[in-house]
Amino acid sequence: MIETVDGLLPPFNNCGSFIKTNNLMCEIFAKQPQENYQFVTRSIRIDGHATSVKLESSFWLILEEIASAQDMTVPKFITTVYQEALEHNGEVNNFASLLRCACLTYARQPQATLDQALSEQN
C-alpha cells in the first residue's frame, strides 16, 4: 500500500519508482529479457476477416493463459473479446490496446474475483 500525505503520492524518480528505493524497481523492469517485450504479430480471423494483431510477447503469453482458462484457443478468445467490445461500445478503435488492457485487468484481479465475474455471466 502506498502511503500518501494529504492524498498525494510521494515523489517519483525518472523511472517511476519512489526516490527512496534507489532504483531497485527500475533494475527489475529494465533487466528483464528483451524477448519479453519484442513484438510478435499473429494472423487471425475475426468474423471471417483475416487480420493481424501485433503485441509484445508477454501479452501473448497472458492471452494464452486467459484463453486456456476459458477452454478456448487464443484466436477464439480474441474473436470473443472483439465481438463483446463491438456490442458494448459500437466500435473498436484500438484493438491491440484493448487486448493489452484485458491482459492487465486479468493480471491485476485476484483469481476469485475473475471466477465470480465469469460465473455471473453464465
Automatic annotation (TrEMBL):
Occurrences of domain Ribbon-helix-helix (ranges): 40-106
UniProt name for this protein: Arylsulfate sulfotransferase
Pfam families: RHH_4
